[in-house]
Amino acid sequence: MKNKSPLKKYDITQCALYKCRRKKRLELLLCLEPGGLKMIDNIIGYHKFEIDKKHTDEKREITAPDKTLKAIQKRILYLLQSVIRPKWLISGEKQKCYIDNGKAHLDGKYVLTIDIKKFYDNCTREPVYQFFVQKLKTSPDVAEILTNIITYNGGIPTGCPTSQLMAFYAYSDMFSEISDLAKQCGCKFTLYVDDMTFSSTEPFSPDQLRQMIDRVLRKYGHKPKYRKVKYYGPSDYKPITGTVVTPKQSLAVPNGLQKTIYDAFQMVKPLIGTETCSEEDAKQILSLKGQLQAARNIEEGKFPEIGRLTNQIKVPDSQSVSTRKRQHHRRSKKIHIKQQAPTK
C-alpha cells in the first residue's frame, strides 16, 4: 500500500477566514447565498443519541448537528484543516489517528498519562469566540456568527465535524503551556482530545509534572481525572489511547478489544458452515470484521484463525447489496452537498 503524500500546510495567517471582517465575505467562504447568514439561526438544530463506550457497559451521549448545519460545519473544518498546528496534536488531524498516539511513545520507557475530567462538558463558548477574534483576527460580529454555528448550549457539542479541532483551538494556549512544562521535564508530549501522554527515555518526577499540569488546567477551568492519572516504568505495559506500548517497545492490542473480539466470535461461531444467516447475524459479522481490522491496524496479522473462520461465514447477497446501496447513498449525498454549495 502506498504511503499518503504529506498534506500541504500553511500558517494561520494564510487561512481564508483570517481577518474576515465582513458578513458578505463570510457568506462567500461558507458557500451560502447572499443574505444566507440572516437565516442561519433557523438551521441551527441538533439531535442526541447514545453510543457504547469502548469495551464497557457504559453509554456516551452524543449531540450531533442536523444535516444543513453539519454541511456548514464541514466547510469551516475544511477552511481550518490545512493550517499548521503543533506536531504533538494527534486528534482532529488528517492522516493521524489514535494509533499514532501510541506509536509516538514507543521509545518512552517512563510514561505518564493524564485525562481531563469532563473535557467537552467544560469547553465553554467564550474561548471559541476568543479564538476567532484573537487568533483569526475576525471582526466581533463574524466571530459571533462562527461561534454560533459550532457551539451549542454554551459549549462545544461532542458530535460535530468541528468538535475535536475546535476543542483544541479554544484551549490551544492551555495545551501549549502544558507542552512547555513537558519540555522542562525532558518529556515528549502528545494530545488526543483530552488524553495527554508524557514519556521519556530517562526517569522523571511524575508527581511534580502532574502538579504543574493540574495548576495549568485549573487556570483554564479544567482539572485532571485523578483516577486516570497513571505512571508506568520500563517493565510495565502502558495503555495509551486504545493501544498498548509493551516493555519491548512494540505496539499491542489492548485486552479489552481482544476480549470483545473473542466474545463476538463465540456469538457467530455456530454460523460457520451454514448456508444463510439473518440480518441481525450479518450485522454481528460485519461488526466483528471491523473489530478485527482495528486490531490488525495495531498488530499486523492479529487473530489469523478467527479472521479465517469468520470469512467462511456466508453473508446473504442481499446484505452486501444493501450495504453497497447505503455506501453509494452516503457518497451521493456528499457529492451533492459539495457540488451544490458553491452555486448558492
What does this structure look like?
It is a single chain. The protein is α+β, with helices and mostly antiparallel strands and 344 residues long. It has 13 helices and 9 strands. Helix 5 packs across helix 7 and helix 10 (255-268) packs antiparallel against helix 11. The radius of gyration is 23 Å and the shape is globular. It starts with 22 loop residues before the first helix and ends with a helix. 30% of the residues are buried.
Which key terms come to mind for this protein?
3-stranded antiparallel β-sheet; 9 strands; 4-stranded antiparallel β-sheet; 344 residues; alpha+beta; 13 helices; globular
Structure, briefly:
The chain has 344 residues and is of the alpha+beta class.
